[in-house]
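Researcher: Next sequence.
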Amino acid sequence: MDSGRLLRALDLAAGKHRDQRRKDEASSPYINHPIAVATALWEAGVRDESALLAAVLHDTVEDTATTREELAAAFGEDVASVVMEVTDDKTLPKARRKELQVEHGPHLTRAAKLVKLGDKLCNVRDVVNSPPADWSVDRRREYIEWASRVVATIRDAGPEASALAALFDAEAARGMAAL
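Model: Next structure:
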């Protein structure tokens, strides 16, 4: 892993997300989320540089004014490609975007599946440990159920994916039991 590339990705993501906050009660800085996703991948044994860089950058195109071309120029086509695989089309209604994540899951590349697994793991952890202030119990339950449907389509990407999926399953079960 090229530490310099990782630091450049962190710098770009931090700059892009600098004015964004998470929906939790503390309104924590958004950059904590992509860092948590990349960390989850690393701790699960992922050493694929494209997957780790894409984990840090995974929400830049979807949630900021970043373009695919900008990512490709800075980090290469492989990283930009993975980011685009996990990027929702915000022109579509939310319900359709969520269904497409389930439909597209089996067709993602291995690196994109790893990023998506890390993203769902971290999101469910947040929903369980520090949910958005305005989310009801039913909305939290619905999110965990939907995320579980997504994870069911992407858990087949090797031993690292199995480790991430097991962590996800434990968090989802803990969350459902607490609701």
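Model: The chain is about 70% helix and 0% strand. The radius of gyration is 15 Å.
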